[in-house]
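Worked example

This section walks through a single chain of length 111. The input is the sequence exactly as stored; nothing has been trimmed or padded.
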Amino acid sequence: MAKWKYQNPQEKRGFGERLYIEPGTPVEILITGWVIVTNPGGGPSFTAYVEQENGEKVDKIWSTWDYDLKENMKKLLKGKNADKDKVKLKVLLKRNEEEMEDEYVVELIKE
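Given that input, the structure is written out below as tokens.
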């Protein structure tokens, strides 16, 4: 028999489920495996796997093109390992109808 049949199965992540944050409603999420892209070139500038949403276990991806959020996440996640660490965040999406802009307010939840 081939050697690969005896290897432990690897964790699979779904790429179909996306995290949707309702404007004005705070969401508590547990993220891991984040990527901060310095030069997105048309793609998302911040992407992370979401393992928990409001205490429920989920398998989703949170990706955004928001530059201000990317810069804020750089500060919040500084010194943490994207592959090993799990970070709990409280995220609020504020919508400004007059200027047609969205603003993410992110807080780090200490455990």
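What to look for: The radius of gyration is 16 Å.
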